[in-house]
Structure formats: C-alpha cells, structure tokens
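Exam prep: given the inputs below (a chain plus adenosine-5'-diphosphate), describe the expected output before reading on.
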Amino acid sequence: MNAITFDVEIKGARKQFGSNVVLNDINLEVKQGELLTLLGPSGCGKSTTLNLIAGFLEADQGDVYIKGKKVTKVPPYKRDLGMVFQTYSLFPHMTVLENLSFGLKLRKVAKTEQKKKIDRVLELVKMSGLEHRYPRELSGGQRQRVAIARALVVEPELLLLDEPLSNLDAKLRHELRAEIKRLQKEIGVTTIFVTHDQEEALSMSDRVVVMNAGKIEQISTPTAIYNHPETEFVFQFIGKSN
Ligand code: ADP
Ligand code: MG
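Solution:
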C-alpha cells in the first residue's frame, strides 16, 4: 500500500497583494488521478491558487505539498508539472514538432524515444500530420491541443490547466471539453482544471471546488454541488447556468 493518498495538498494558504487578501485559509487535497476543477467568478483567486501549486507564487502563510513532500520553496521547473494557460503559450518561432521536442531535449531524452513520445501525444490530441506547422498556421483550438500535447509529452506528475478553453468558440469548447476529459482518464494524470464556467466544471470534473472571494465555499462531486449546494453563494452561482 502506498501511504501517500494525495498528489497535491494545500494547507492553510493565505495570499495578499498589498492590502488585498486574495486567498484566505485555503485547504485543498487533490487525489491521485482525479480531475479536480477550481470553479468561481473572475477574481476569486483560482489562478493564484494554481500558481501556488506551480510555484510561480509563494503563499504568505501555509504550505503546498506534492506527493507528500513540502514544495513551498521548490522552483516551478523542479515540480514535474505541465501547465496550459488561457492564452496560447506555444513558442511562435517553432513548429509543432519543435515545440514538443523542446522539453524532451532539456530532459536529454534520446532522439528515437522523442519521436515515439511525440507521435503518441499528437495522436492523443488528434494533431497527427501537422508536425511541421507553425502556431500561426493553426486555429485556436489546434493551438490549445498542441499546448496540451506539449504539457503532456514530458509525462508530468501533474497537469495544470488555467482556463484553456476560454478563448475558443462554443462549439470547439464543447468538443475540447470532452476530449480533455477522455485524455485525462486515458493517461490518468492528476489534473487541476480552472474555469469560471459552471457547466464546464460540472460536465468535466471528478470533483469541483467552488471558490468565492479567496475562500473555498464547497468541495464536492458535480452531482452533489448541483443537487446539494452547501452555501447561498454556491446555490446562486450554480443556478446561473440554468
Ligand atoms: P481568478 O483566476 O479567479 O480570476 P486571480 O487569482 O487571478 O483570480 O486573482 C485574484 C485577485 O488577486 C484579483 O483581485 C486580482 O486582481 C488579484 N491579483 C492577482 N495577481 C495579482 C498580482 N500579481 N498583483 C496584484 N494583484 C493580483
Ligand atoms: Mg484566472
């Protein structure tokens, strides 16, 4: 039996920018292999929470643990995670292939092995055959697929997705929702997904964390959030989508 049951833990995190308390006593546990979504209105602290986990920000109080190890002082590049942002984070002067091999080269993965890994992730995100395109030659949805592939190709312990679908049109958003969900289960990578879209959160996640003004309102399965909102805020916020 593995003694560690959580891939990520945040204990008592507090973060303030000037006099603005952005996170107030955040406690969160992310289980191995689950897709957990941080859901809440713009400005509630979702990205800040994700950035604490990624290591781009440090909490004023509290700690972050990954696989049971305190990482509060560990820099992002040593945290073994893949991250995708709302705006396209591909290198514009590199082809799809070069974007994908970048992280593998850094990790000194052998050439033949690189090709195998790249072929596999491109197939997973349905981008096979487009290896030699530049980001400007791809649609928004294709770029986000490549960004997800680039995050996954190094086989990270943890996948962090910060509103990766928010810039896409409705049809594509629905399509990619289903794909991310399928992909996540297929690979089994522990994933933290951020969105302000109730429907997106409820349709994709194993569990949802509803946030409001720097605090966690409720952590439950989508069904429980929908059927048994525990606070007035959750009731109102989830109700909005209907
Ligand atoms: P969300 O991702 O839920 O929209 P954020 O975590 O980005 O919210 O931001 C939460 C709050 O913190 C907002 O009020 C935002 O303006 C503020 N904030 C975020 N980053 C910074 C920063 N680097 N400096 C000052 N204020 C910030
Ligand atoms: Mg954000």
